[in-house]
Design goal:
By secondary structure, this protein is mainly α. It has one domain: Ribonuclease III domain (Ribonuclease iii, N-terminal Endonuclease Domain, Chain A). It contains 6 helices and no strands. Helix 3 crosses helix 6. The longest helix is centred in the N-terminal third of the chain and has 23 residues.
Length: about 130
């Protein structure tokens, strides 16, 4: 896949919060795609299940599973996102912002295969969600 940002845009120069803005959408879409492919459910159930997976605590746990598998470049992007000054505080929220920044960076750089690979590692071993 080609880069979505023009070559003259330095992705390292984009604010980590802007990368997280894109990555939030990418991650949310992948969660939604997975849920729809697992089972045909009412929209309310799909929404509830998606919220469980995209909340900061779930994303922070996902990041912990990924950290040992990230390249040096990916770890650097994650840290930029994690360390960004946001209006919210808390370790889980900062880790989630870092994960979203990483997904946004990889997506904008056209590395959708790597995005899918990382997402597969996140969901590896998970059983399909039950409604709560």
């Amino acid at each position: 896949m080609d880069r979505l940002c023009p070559m003259e845009v330095d992705l390292h120069g984009i604010s980590p919060l802007n990368l997280a803005f894109v990555g939030d959408g990418v991650y949310d879409l992948m969660v939604r795609e997975r849920l729809v492919c697992l089972a045909n459910r009412p929209n309310k159930e799909l929404h509830q299940l998606a919220v469980q997976q995209v909340r900061a605590e779930a994303q922070a746990a996902a990041l912990e599973r990924l950290l040992p598998m990230l390249s040096e470049e990916e770890t650097s992007v994650y840290r930029r996102g994690r360390n960004a000054h946001t209006s919210r505080s808390g370790g889980d929220y900062h880790k989630a912002t870092g994960l979203e920044a990483l997904f946004g960076y990889l997506y904008l750089s056209g590395r959708l295969d790597r995005v899918r690979e990382l997402f597969a590692l996140i969901i590896e071993g998970e059983t399909p969600f039950e409604t709560t």
